[in-house]
Amino acid sequence: MYILTIGETEREIHWMCFDSLEAGRQFLSLLPGYGCELNEESGNIEREWLRPSEFPDYGEIDFRGNKMPVSRFMFQDQEKVEVYFREIPNLSVEKQGLIDGVTSVDAYSIPNEETRDYISTRENTFKVVKSILAERGIETERAFHGSEDGEAILYKRPEETDWHFLGHMDPAFVELGKESEERIREWVEESLL
User: Is 63 exposed, middle or buried (0-12, 13-18, 19+ CB in 10 A)?
Assistant: First the structure.
């Protein structure tokens, strides 16, 4: 299943779904103001968009016996709106094994096949960093969960009242966790104020 998603400046709208990309693109081709950019080498579509200013005040698109109302008033942005397809797993199909796709881990999309190792490495690296700082009597705290840049580590020395930023627990942090403890110690030293 594929969800046709409209990506505007300040919002994302999951518009409708299709059994295949081909069906979704057949529908898009019926819309006024539809455009796409092809990869010259592969011939695959790289970007797709709609121009809402070319939509009528009200119209109906007939697609396979389904009438879909469309209007320029559906959109906040009027010049060019990105559209894309997001594949969603159909769990009604049995025995698929690990589902293709991505899992949101904090502020980052991680391929499903890498998610377990990513989270394990991230959490273990945090424990190592926390231990390194604890050896020096420095308190740590996790902060900014759910923020645009994701969760981060803050620290505070015993004699201080203010917390300081050490670093985000992002994909670079996970890569750091794959290195030696000595390299993690170097990173901590470089990151301390």
Answer: middle
